[in-house]
Amino acid sequence: MAEQEPSIAATEERQIGVDEPEQEQESTAASAKTLPPSLTTASLSSPPVSISIWPPTQRTRDAVIDRLVENLTTPSVLTKRYVVLSSDEATDVARRIEEEAFVVASAEVKGGEVEESVGMDSEGFAILQIYSQNVSKRMLDTVKSKAAAAAAAATATTEESDVSEISAAGSVTGESVGGNV
């Protein structure tokens, strides 16, 4: 049998394989020509934009509030040890905690304490740390006080029911709770 010529499909595959790198180079060169002037290499070498982390944006502050609500309303080490709050109560508490922490941190910046000790070259990292610590401390203080109030209320309810039971028992037997009649 005579040698068969390569099929048309095999020939096309070889041609495509050879032509692809050239086509890629052409498309890359064409796309480079169409870049807007703001994205050229010269514009990319300009100094970077300064980003300030203090004060936080309203979006960031809202995210802190949302996270606080989540921490106060869902089972966690904190809520298992102290108390789980209702969603409405947690939202009110979270807004108060965040606002107080923000005011305290802002006052420290305005007072110059942070500026002198760290310098504002640190782009607010020190003040952000103060803010975060205040949020955490206030959240812990809140759940501790809520747990203490709940325990006190439970104790008072238990004592009241004990007194009621004693009073009821005394009136059934005809004795006075305060002593003999």
TrEMBL record:
- Report the InterPro entries cross-referenced here: WPP1/2/3, WPP_dom, WPP_sf
Q: Give the span(s) annotated as Disordered.
A: 1-50
Q: Which Pfam families match?
A: WPP
Instruction: Spell out where the chain crosses the membrane.
Output: none
Kindly state which keywords UniProt assigns to this record, in alphabetical order. Cytoplasm, Nucleus
Annotated Gene Ontology cellular components are: cytoplasm; nucleus
Q: Where is the composition biased (Low complexity)?
A: 34-50
Its GO biological process annotations read:
lateral root development; mitotic cell cycle
Q: Where is the WPP domain?
A: 50-152
Instruction: List where in the cell it is found.
Output: Cytoplasm; Nucleus
Question: Which named protein is this?
Answer: MFP1 attachment factor 1
Which species is listed as the source?
A: Zostera marina
